[in-house]
Specification:
With about 475 residues, the protein is an alpha+beta fold. Among the domains are: about 120 residues, no CATH class; about 70 residues, Arc Repressor Mutant, subunit A (Orthogonal Bundle), CATH 1.10.10.60. Helices cover about 50% and strands about 5% of the residues. The protein has 21 helices and eight strands. It has a four-stranded mixed beta sheet with strand order 3-2-5-6. The chain has a two-stranded antiparallel sheet with strand order 1-4. α1 crosses α14, α16 packs across α17 and α19 crosses α20. It starts with 15 loop residues before the first helix and ends with a helix. About 25% of the residues are buried.
Length: about 475
C-alpha cells in the first residue's frame, strides 16, 4: 500500500541582484575594475564613453526603476553617483613587483641557448613551487614534458638545464631540497674559512645541524667553538625560501595592491574614504535604448524579439549597477564599523591597542550576516597613516589577562615573541618556562596555547633554538 504525504518546504532563492551583489562584494578593487570592463564588453546597453550633450538633446539622469517596460524607451542615461567628486582622484599602488616566474624567464632570455634547451628550462621554471623549489622527480618531469608540452628530452638534459636555472637570482632557486638550496647560496658567497666550514657542515652533517647537535658536529669535523660559531653565522643568514623574495600574490594579474579604503587622521579625527580609482562611470547607451522605437515599423514578431532583447539587457544592466551601489554601501558600512570598534588603535597605530574582534562583532554592529562580513574582509586592504594592512589583520580572538581585561591574541603573540627574543640562546626557554614568563608579564596562558602561538609565529621548539 502506497502512502502519500503532503508537506510544506520553505526554500529561499536568491534573486539575480543578490547573486550579483554577493559576487561583486568579494572582489578587491583591481578585480572589480576587470569585472566592470567585462560587463561593458558583454552588455551593449551599458556604456562608459563620455556623453555628448547638444542643446536639443533632452537626455536626463534617471533611475532604471522609473522606466515602464511597456512604454516606448526614450533617450536616457544612467550614472552611478556613489563615488567621490574627483573624476580620477590620485592613488598609490603598492607592492608593485615583478612576478617570480617573470623574473626567471627574463633571466633565461639572456642565456645563449637553443630553442629546445630554452623550452626545457622554461618548463622547469614553470614547475617550481612558491618557495622556488623543484619538488618534482626528474624522471616525472621528463614524462610531463613529453605528454604535456611535446618536448622530447632526457634526464641528463633536464639536470643540465636545472643547473642553468640554479644560477639565476634569487640565489638558491631551483633547489630540490633545503640542503641543496643552502649549498647553492654558500657557493655564491666569498669563499673564506667560515664559508668553507659551513659548506662542510651542510654537506656532511646536515641532519645534526638541523637538530642543533653542535658538539657532535665539532667533534666529527674537528672544528673549534669559534669556527663553529662563524660557520653557523653564515648559515643562519641564508634564505630557506628564495622564491618568497618576489611577490607573487597576483600571479596572473598586475603585480600590485591597491587599497580599497584610505583612512586619514587629521586634527584628532579619523576620516574614511573609498577612492574611486579608475572605475568607469556607467550609463545606458541610448542607441540601444532606442532600438524599440526603430523597430516600431517592423512586424509584431520582430518588435517583440527586439523588446525581449532590450528588456534582458536592461535587467542585467539594472542588476549590475545596483550591485555596484550595494557593494559600495556594504563595504563602507563594514569598514566604518571596524574603524569605530578599533578607534584607539587606528588613532595610535599601537598594536597593543588592537582589541579582540571577531566577524560576529562587526556583523552585530552593521546588521549584516557574518558571511557578508567575511566576503567584505577577504582580499581587501586599507591604507592608514601608519601603514597598509589587509582587513583580516584587525580580527583576532581574545583572552583575559590577570586584571580581567580582555586582550587580543595578537598582543599575546607579540609578548611571546619578546620572551623568545630576550631568552638566553644557550638555554632557550621551554614551553613550560614560557608559560611562567608570560604569567610574570600578566598573561595567564595554557601550555598548549603557547605551543600553538609559537607554531603560528614560526618559532621552533627550545631544542631547535639552541645556539653555541
Amino acid at each position: 500500500m502506497l502512502k502519500q504525504e503532503l508537506g510544506l518546504k520553505q526554500q529561499q532563492k536568491l534573486s539575480p541582484l543578490q547573486i550579483q551583489t554577493i559576487k561583486i562584494i568579494e572582489l578587491p578593487v583591481l578585480e572589480l575594475e576587470q569585472r566592470i570592463r567585462k560587463e561593458l564588453e558583454e552588455n551593449p546597453v551599458l556604456d562608459d564613453s563620455p556623453s555628448e550633450k547638444s542643446e536639443d538633446d533632452e537626455t536626463r539622469d534617471v533611475s532604471l526603476s522609473e522606466i515602464n517596460e511597456d512604454d516606448p524607451i526614450p533617450s536616457y542615461r544612467l550614472h552611478v553617483n556613489n563615488y567621490g567628486k574627483d573624476e580620477r582622484p590620485q592613488y598609490n599602488t603598492f607592492s608593485v613587483k615583478q612576478s617570480f616566474t617573470q623574473s626567471l624567464m627574463e633571466q633565461l632570455g639572456f642565456r645563449n641557448l637553443s630553442k629546445h634547451q630554452h623550452d626545457v628550462a622554461a618548463f622547469i621554471i614553470g614547475s617550481l613551487d612558491d618557495d622556488g623549489y623543484l619538488r618534482r622527480d626528474i624522471e616525472n618531469l621528463v614524462d610531463d614534458m613529453a605528454f604535456r608540452a611535446n618536448i622530447d628530452t632526457t634526464e641528463e638534459e633536464v639536470l643540465k638545464m636545472l643547473k642553468v636555472v640554479q644560477e639565476f637570482e634569487p640565489t638558491g632557486v631551483g633547489a630540490r631540497d633545503l640542503q641543496e638550496c643552502l649549498l647553492i647560496q654558500l657557493k655564491n658567497l666569498n669563499q673564506d674559512e667560515a664559508t668553507a666550514n659551513a659548506t662542510k657542515i651542510l654537506t656532511n652533517c646536515f641532519q645534526d645541524f638541523s637538530n642543533r647537535h653542535f658538539q657532535r658536529i665539532m667533534s666529527r669535523l674537528g672544528l673549534t667553538e669559534a669556527q663553529m660559531k662563524a660557520a653557523t653565522a653564515k648559515i643562519v643568514k641564508l634564505n630557506p625560501a628564495p622564491g618568497g623574495q618576489v611577490d607573487d600574490s597576483y600571479v596572473d594579474q598586475a603585480q600590485q595592491i591597491v587599497p580599497d579604503f584610505v583612512l586619514t587622521y587629521d586634527n584628532g579625527e579619523l576620516n574614511l574614504t573609498m577612492p574611486r580609482f579608475s572605475l568607469p562611470e556607467i550609463r545606458v547607451n541610448k542607441k540601444y535604448a532606442e532600438l524599440l522605437m526603430e523597430a516600431a515599423g517592423s512586424s509584431e514578431r520582430q518588435k517583440k524579439e527586439a523588446a525581449t532583447f532590450v528588456k534582458q539587457k536592461m535587467d542585467s544592466a539594472k542588476w549590475f549597477v545596483e550591485a555596484l551601489k550595494q557593494r559600495h554601501n556594504t563595504l563602507m558600512s563594514t569598514m566604518q564599523a571596524i574603524v569605530d570598534y578599533q578607534e584607539t588603535y587606528f588613532q595610535t597605530g599601537d598594536e597593543s591597542n588592537l582589541k579582540p574582534m571577531v566577524l560576529k562583532d562587526i556583523a552585530e554592529k552593521t546588521g549584516f550576516d557574518i558571511s557578508t562580513i567575511s566576503r567584505v574582509v577577504n582580499s581587501k586592504y586599507i591604507e592608514t597613516h601608519f601603514g597598509i594592512f589587509p582587513l583580516k589583520y584587525f580580527f583576532s580572538e581574545g583572552l583575559e589577562n590577570q586584571e580581567g581585561e580582555e586582550v587580543s591574541t595578537r598582543e599575546l603573540k607579540k609578548v611571546l615573541q619578546e620572551c623568545v627574543d630576550g631568552e638566553n640562546k644557550h638555554k632557550p626557554l621551554t614551553d613550560d618556562q614560557l608559560v611562567d614568563e608570560m604569567e610574570k608579564r600578566g598573561y595567564k596562558v595554557a601550555r598548549r596555547t603557547i605551543a600553538k602561538y609559537r607554531d603560528q609565529l614560526g618559532i621552533p621548539k627550545a631544542r631547535l633554538r639552541k645556539e653555541l
